[in-house]
Amino acid sequence: MKSSQSQSAQLEQRLIDFAVRIVRLSANLPSSFAGAHFGKQILRSGSAPALLYGEARAAESDKDFRHKCSLALKELRETHINLKIIQQSELYAADRLAALLDENNQLISIFVRTVRTMDDRINQTKN
Questions:
Q1: Helix (H) or strand (E) holding 89
Q2: Is the separation of the CB atoms in 29 and 86 below 8 Å?
Q3: What span, in angstroms and rounded, lies between the C-alpha atoms of 71 and 77?
């Protein structure tokens, strides 16, 4: 990424990269019923944060931005659970999931901070 990119553009690209990794993971899960089920589940939850953050960047207000970021956070948390289920059920090699789980956790942390910051900003404008 170029250093001249804004933080929001960098985060958006990071979410897109994460979604691409999820697409590849879902494509490589076994064709069993469980593999297909969790492939579809993780494809939805793992790609949603990039789409939601894209919407958030065009938010009409702080409340709208906060709402869309909180939805992205929920999807990231759902993705985390899906990754853990895939890992523990041995649908995919655990060592190949480690970096994806780490990135997922980092993105969750970013969105937790973002939502808290927005809560503070919204509460300050009320006072």
A1: none
A2: yes
A3: 10
